[in-house]
């Protein structure tokens, strides 16, 4: 599985669990880049339109921890949109954009 696929799978699983009222899952990431501290933005789009985007400009925690936190924040705390519901998250978000970089270094 590629780094991007691993990241998207973590975002989807995190949103499914948290929006259902369960604790965020803990992942055992394979790619070592998940241990890096780097900026991260999780962007949710519905039918190509922005639905939520929240992130960290600087890496203040490992990407493995930040990715789930930013996914939940993008789905539930972006002030421009109402919170995403579980039914919507499961069926409508097929492509999630995750951009991570620090000092022009692309994590992926």
Q: Can you describe this structure?
A:
The protein is an alpha+beta fold and 108 residues long. It has a single domain (3-23, 38-103), classed as Glycoprotein, Type 4 Pilin, CATH 3.30.700.20. The chain has helices at 3-19, 63-76, 86-92, and strands spanning 39-46, 49-56, 96-102, 105-106. Strands 2-1-3-4 form a four-stranded antiparallel β-sheet. A hairpin with a 2-residue loop joins strand 1 (39-46) and strand 2 (49-56). Helix 1 packs across helix 2. The radius of gyration is 13 Å and the shape is globular. Mean pLDDT is 81; it is low at 91-97 and 101-108.
Number of discrete domains = 1
Largest sheet: 4 strands, antiparallel
Structural class: alpha+beta
* Biggest sheet, spatial arrangement of strands: 2-1-3-4
**Which homologous superfamily in CATH is the superfamily?**
Hypothetical protein ph0010, domain 1
In short:
The protein has 3 helices and 4 strands. It has 108 residues and is of the alpha+beta class. The model is unreliable at 91-97 and 101-108 (pLDDT under 50).
Layout of helices and strands:
Blueprint: H1 3-19, E1 39-46, E2 49-56, H2 63-76, H3 86-92, E3 96-102, E4 105-106
Antiparallel strand pairs: 1-2, 1-3, 3-4
Keywords:
Glycoprotein, Type 4 Pilin, 108 residues, 35% helix, 4 strands, single chain, 4-stranded antiparallel beta sheet, alpha+beta, globular, disordered C terminus, 3 helices
């Amino acid at each position: 599985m590629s780094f991007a696929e691993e990241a998207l799978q973590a975002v989807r699983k995190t949103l499914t669990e948290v929006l259902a009222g369960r604790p965020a899952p803990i992942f055992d990431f394979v790619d070592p880049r998940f241990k890096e501290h780097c900026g991260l933005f999780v962007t949710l789009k519905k039918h190509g339109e922005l639905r939520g985007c929240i992130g960290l400009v600087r890496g203040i925690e490992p990407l493995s921890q930040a990715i789930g936190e930013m996914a939940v924040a993008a789905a539930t705390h972006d002030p421009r949109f109402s919170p995403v519901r579980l039914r919507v998250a499961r069926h409508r978000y097929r492509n999630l954009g995750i951009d991570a970089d620090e000092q022009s270094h692309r994590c992926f």
